[in-house]
Structures are given as C-alpha cells and as structure tokens.
C-alpha cells in the first residue's frame, strides 16, 4: 500500500507543508517540500493521502493523484455553489476550485457538475506556452502552479489568485506567492474571497 502524509500537521495550506512521508509497503521515505510542492509529490499515484487542512483548490488538485484524500477537518469541503464574476476578456484558464464560469478548468472529476470544460491534470499543465489571456488560480498556494500559470499565459496576460477570506489565509501570503511570476496590480475582497490580480512578468 502506498500513501503520503503531509507535514507538519498544523499547516493550513499546501504551501505551509514542509515535508511529506512516503509510505510504501512498510518502508518510509521523507520528501522535502521546502522549495516546491506539487511537482515533488505528483511523480506517483497513491492509495490515499493524509493531510492537514487544505484550501479547496489544493484538495481538488491532489485528488487527481489519489483515490482517497483524508483531511483533518473531515472529508472534502470542495465545491461551493458561489460563482464570481470578474468580467474577463479572452481565453481563460482556471486552476483549482471552479469559482468562475466560461473557462477551461484544471481540477478533478468532483468538479465536473460545475464547469463546462474540465481537464484532469496536476503538473505540468497540458497546455502550450502563451496559450491563455487570463489565468485564475483558485484556492491554491503553490510555487510550481504559479510558474506553470505564468508559462501558459500570454505576455502581458493577467493572473488572478483567489483565496477564501474566511479560511485563515491572509492576503499577504497570496501576494508573496503570486509575485514570484506576476507584478501585483491590486488586491480586493469580493463576495467572501480575496482577489489578487497581477500581470505576467517578462
């Protein structure tokens, strides 16, 4: 049996996970997650993953590499019925929780009732460089995902990081993550979510 345990147990997001213990038929191996997250743990499929609290988008993405995800706050908080309207123009990619309509969404089968064009993927994203006018990263704080979002975004394209304003994640954490590849333009609260907008760095 193969399973993964994300540590430390008091982390609130995948970004705060510093390591993981990979259990494979009685053997243990520690995986360092201090510099990258998604790319380090997606090289294999797991029977299940034990995790601390995750953002909804993070849980949906991890569900692509395991059939069973156990979170300390209970089973999947996943999909909210709330949809946000950002009035976006052009081709838009959404990664994580399906909060925006009329997009191509990279998520998990659990989200298929909520989106029109669903792509099951984790890392790397299955799109060519400079393919989208906008990229929305909803409820995921991960450097690898931000780098991939930047790669598939056209030059001067817009990137949006959306996090729940009531999940205990401060907007400054989102700004830090998004700013590795995006120039931050503004931050605002909309219908219970922090919207952090940036343009792709050249």
* CATH architecture classification of the largest domain: 3-Layer(aba) Sandwich
Q: Please identify which CATH superfamily of the largest domain we are dealing with.
A: Vaccinia Virus protein VP39
CATH topology of the largest domain: Rossmann fold
Summed up, the helix count is 4
Describe the structure concisely for a colleague.
This protein has 202 residues and is mainly beta. The chain is 14% helix and 37% strand. It has helices spanning 38-41, 56-62, 143-152, 171-178; strands at 2-7, 19-24, 27-32, 48-51, 69-71, 92-96, 104-107, 117-120, 132-138, 153-164, 182-190, 193-200.
Can you tell me about this structure?
The longest helix is centred in the C-terminal third of the chain and has 10 residues. The chain has 202 residues and is mainly β. It folds into 2 domains: 70 residues, no CATH class; 109 residues, Rossmann fold (3-Layer(aba) Sandwich), CATH 3.40.50. The chain has a 7-stranded mixed β-sheet with strand order 8-7-6-9-10-12-11. It contains 4 helices and 12 strands; from the N terminus they run βββαβαβββββαβαββ. About 7% of the residues have low confidence. β9, α3 and β10 form a beta-alpha-beta unit. It is globular and about 50 Å long. This is SAM-dependent methyltransferase. It comes from Sulfurisphaera ohwakuensis. Keywords: Methyltransferase, Transferase. GO terms for molecular function: S-adenosylmethionine-dependent methyltransferase activity.
């Amino acid at each position: 049996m193969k399973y993964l345990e994300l540590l430390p147990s008091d982390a609130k997001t995948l970004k705060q996970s510093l390591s993981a213990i990979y259990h494979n038929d009685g053997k243990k191996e520690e995986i360092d997650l201090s510099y990258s997250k998604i790319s380090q743990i997606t090289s294999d499929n797991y029977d299940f993953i034990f995790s601390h609290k995750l953002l909804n988008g993070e849980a949906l993405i991890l569900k692509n590499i395991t059939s069973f995800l156990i979170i300390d706050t209970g089973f999947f908080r996943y999909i909210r019925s709330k949809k946000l309207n950002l009035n976006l123009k052009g081709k838009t990619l959404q990664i994580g929780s399906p909060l925006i309509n009329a997009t191509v969404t990279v998520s998990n089968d659990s989200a298929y009732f909520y989106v029109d064009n669903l792509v099951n993927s984790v890392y790397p994203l299955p799109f060519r460089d400079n393919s989208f006018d906008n990229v929305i990263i909803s409820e995921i704080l991960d450097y690898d995902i931000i780098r991939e979002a930047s790669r598939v975004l056209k030059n001067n394209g817009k990137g949006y990081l959306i996090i729940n304003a009531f999940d205990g994640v401060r907007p400054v954490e989102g700004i830090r993550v998004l700013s590795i590849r995006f120039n931050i333009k503004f931050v605002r609260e909309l219908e219970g979510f922090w919207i952090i907008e940036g343009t792709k760095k050249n």
